[in-house]
Amino acid sequence: MNIEKKDWVLENRYRKLIMEILSKEAKTKKEIQEEFKITLFPYISKYKPKATISISSQALKNHLGLLLREGMIKKEGKKYIVNEVKKIPDEC
Amino acid sequence: MSKNPLPYEILESARLVGFDVETMIKEETPKFFLNYNRIVGVKEVEGLILAGRELENGVMADFIVTSGKKIKTPVHLCFGVVEEEGTQEIVPRFIIDDGAQVLVLAHCSFPKARNLTHRMQAEIILGKNAIFLYEERHYHGEMGGAKVFPKFRVDVGDGSFFQSIFSLTKGSVGLLSIDVEVYAHTASRIEIVNKAYGRSSQDKVQIRDAVFLEGENARGLVKLRAAASQGGDVIMMGITEANAPYATGHVDCKEIVKGEGSTARAIPIVRVGDENARVTHEASVGKVNQKQLDTLMARGLTEQEAVDMIVQGML
Hints:
By secondary structure, chain A is of the alpha+beta class. Chain A has four helices and four strands. Chain A has a two-stranded antiparallel ribbon with strand order 1-2. In chain A, strand 3 (73-76) and strand 4 (79-82) form a beta hairpin. Chain B has one domain. Chain B has four helices and 19 strands.
């Protein structure tokens, strides 16, 4: 790990997740929010956790604004989609 | 399970870093113990699920506190290796479900490490209104032969509290590379504290603690304390990024450097992506206080003993 050389925009895993969602198809902000769920299931145990985390509307708006400004996504009507020029690194 | 499933050297190092070993090994104490890559002790209590599977070079494990359960006694984790060489890889998932609470005391001990690698790749989720207090203390022996790579990814749900305290202040470090990322949601609270002391040219410490405040009113504190002496090398990066209204964060780095060839670097990074959020930072890297050093040496301590005492006081 070289901690001094990280791409700060995609250092945030949630922005990377938004990019992954938008790399499949164009989506509105509401559709992204519905798809954006953080859960964690056990490796071994059969326990079914209730814990599910959603992204807040304002944080999502801020992330989309940043990704637009950095040219990583573009807006077509009400939908956002990945700008094909930019590629998501495997590991950030 | 036998009453004392861990080797003597592991228990002694647990004692050295300040754990109550008698409580730790009591049969009724909730626990998950590894001796190298073998699971040697598991004790669950109501509401706590501990499941593990041995792998070729390590162990995969579930640590679950079920919804609404408050575990009253601290849970002890021990990842020990008494071999001089080898690899131990731990892949755990911690699920602290909605309304659950737990305190974990983790002990990582490699007392004879000459060429030993320990990797931890932990995923953690806290549901809503949960509390997870995690304290991890390390001991890597005296030969500088450990290479330790803990990596944590943590998602903290609405109204929850996550606290992580890491310390490696006794013995040598070897190579330590910590990478922590925490995502904090609405009205959650995060405290990350890391303490490390590199005291020889074999000791290298790299720490990256990143807190992303993703929910309204989320709060984060990253506190880094380190020292480098006799050629030790320490770099600590504390990152806080606020992406939601009224989120507040603070990064506090303090390091001491002593002796030729020693280096200490502190990198606080603050980012704000919402006009109503606020993040602050402070950082200092400096030498040992000369007046304190002179006072201790006048009382009969050698220079190195005096430096150690001052550093331990800061840590």
